[in-house]
Amino acid sequence: SIGLSLGGETLPIEDISRPEEGEVGPTRVYLSQQTFLTVADRSDVRLRIGDATTQLPDQMRTEMRQIFEKVV
Fold first, then answer.
1. For every residue of 11-50, which 3-state class applies, written as one string?
2. Are β-strands 45-49 and 28-30 bridged in parallel, bridged antiparallel, or unpaired?
3. Nearest to 53, CA basis, from 61, 44, 62
4. Which of 49, 50, 53, 63 has its CA 20 to 30 A from that of 8?
């Protein structure tokens, strides 16, 4: 399972797209604009994949902000 949290509260995920059974490829996580910005702006957001939990790297969050600025 995949999840995002901030301060113990779950952040909404719009959709998750995984490779077909037996295929290899990326898992895509789709977020609302508000959640995307929250993840980009807050270093204390946690990403959970199965039993593992981690913070998103600063570089990734910086790139997310740059993407948002270009798109919006």
1. ECCCEEECCCCCCCCCCEEECCHHHHHHHHHCCCEEEEEC
2. unpaired
3. 44
4. 63
Position 36 scores a pLDDT of 96
Q: What is the spatial distance between Cα 27 and Cα 7, in angstroms, rounded to a whole number?
A: 25
H/E element, 45: strand 45-49
DSSP 43: T
Q: Which two tokens stand for residue 10?
A: 């779950």
pTM score of the predicted model: 0.85
CA pair distance 66, 50, nearest whole angstrom: 29
Nearest to 1 by CA among 71, 39, 51: 51
